[in-house]
Amino acid sequence: MIALFACALALLCKSSNAAFCHGKPSPTAQPNNNTIDVAPPRFVRSVINATGGHASLYLVGAGDDEISLVHLWGTAYEKGYAHGTLMKEPMTQFTNRAFAFFAEQFQQALNSSVPWIPPKMAAWVAKVGLEVALDLTADATKPYTGTYFYEEMQGMADATGLDYKTIRRVHMIGELTKGSCSMYGAWGQATETGNTLQMRALDWDTSGPFQNYPQVTIYHKPSTTSTAHPVWLDEASVPPQVAKEASFANVGWTGWIGSITGMSESQTGVSEIGVSFPDATFGNESRFGVPFTFILRDILQFDATLEDAMKHITGASRTCDLILGVGDGKVDPTTDGAPFRGVQYSHSVANFFDDTNMEPKNDTWHAKIESMVYYGMDWLCPNFSIVLHRQLAMLHGSLNVANTVREVVPIVQTGDLHIAIYDLTRMMMYVANAKSDNESGPSMAYDRQFIQLNMTLLFQEPSPQVQVPSPLGL
Question: Using CA atoms, how far apart are residues 285 and 23, in angstroms rounded to an integer?
Fold first, then answer.
């Protein structure tokens, strides 16, 4: 079966060169004039498990823009068990609904276009079955993946009664699909105060269950030094500070433990764009390596600096075509260079770009902007990139969170499912989520209210087992 998998990948992983992405922002797109919600989190409940894991649930946002905020403490298994105990019902619903949605979408892709599913991948999945395809993906990536991911999934399964394989399959779907997203990194002279800002907009399918289970999960570092570390292809490239885990925030959904959006107490943040329209410089893809949602989480959890993250990406066994973004609020651009890198990421290459060498090079639709790196929807995507460039160039020197919310994401019309904006200097994060099935208001996250999160206070939140005052004042 593994041989069959390898043969299928040889056919599926051919790049579609010399093609451009489709669609464009509406010329009548309107600014987002909602105020940013700055109210503190509201405590709901905590669990203290006999296994040693602890978890607390808060709510942030108001009314139809409410998002779950979950804190986790303990080992990987204990975090998973406490998380499953605290959020059993929504976690069970999300996992089952997500898998059913994926199955339906792959079936639909055989008869009509599903933008985030490559047609050849859909045909292969139809032959072997979605369960088999995802299990083969898990088998292919397991040698490159830290065991703590699977330990956390097992804890979730034990607490909720969910099938472990179903949880694992949901976490493999990213390796079979492509999503369109946007990002920017901006610093120094480009921003209003010189702060390092980073934007990550997730454009995916809003017809599924995802917008109904938004969650920011705070993973608290262990009280003692951990010996666990991610797997690098070249162990000599493992940074010395890897044993010093950081607390980090994962923006996603209830029961989702991979990272596509997040920031850490090390003042680092990550962004990601799936590449459906690469050029020849990407080389080849592979399914044999670390899943990209796990490598992004490893960066947040284990890498203390931008330099560490770049070494990590270079040394990793990479898989599919992506654009990544990594920012570091500790870097002083006046003395240490750019605090953000865009990353051309594939099995074959890991190329890092700042404002001086940003690619692809095109003076018409992907022109350079001083102290900024940006990507709109894909690698070769003129219609979105040119609008993103226009808005960022207009705001150059005055760019901040408020005008990103008001004049960047809604005009580019990027971030339909969720958006996070990181102020990596001030350790603040701002998030928005698409309209759920039972909510009112605009459908897309970029038109909805953003919620401010003080990450310094969130990372200092004590375990419910520790009887000390909350830094949140709750």
Answer: 25
Six-digit token string for 85: 């105990």
Which neighbouring-strand residues pair with 432?
419
Alpha carbon distance, N-terminus to C-terminus of the chain: 54
Alpha-helical runs (H) found in 87-222:
88-109, 119-128, 130-141, 147-160, 164-172
Tokens representing 87?
């959020």
Reduced to 3 states (helix: H, G, I; strand: E, B; else coil), residue 201 is strand
| Integer Cα distance of 365 and 148 in angstroms | 42
**Angle separating helix axes 88-109 and 164-172, nearest 10 degrees:** 50
Q: State how far Cα 440 lies from the chain centre.
A: 26
Amino acid at 325: G
Distances (CA, A) of 439 to 212, 277, 450: 9, 34, 15
**CA 268 to CA 446: how far, in whole Å?**
23
Using a pLDDT cut of 90, give the percent of the chain over it.
70
Structure tokens at 468: 């000390």
Report the range of poorest mean pLDDT among 372-386, 429-443, 452-466.
Answer: 452-466
- Tens digits of per-residue pLDDT, 45-95? 999 987 778 999 999 999 999 999 999 999 999 999 999 999 999 999 999
Say which residue the tokens 């070769």 belong to: 380
Beta-carbon contacts of residue 48 (< 8 Å; ≥ 6 apart): 54, 464, 465
Q: What is the mean pLDDT of the chain?
A: 87
DSSP 175: G
Cα distance between residue 416 and residue 435, in whole Å:
9
**Complete domains list, the chain, with CATH:** 25-74+179-459 (3.60.60.10)
State the CB neighbour count (10 A cutoff) for residue 443.
13
Structure tokens at 22: 């489709």
Beta bridge partners of 345: 322, 350
DSSP secondary structure, 423-447, as one string: ETTTTEEEEEE---TT--S-SSGGG
The region, left, alpha or beta by phi > 0 then psi within -120 to 50, assigned to residue 377 is: left
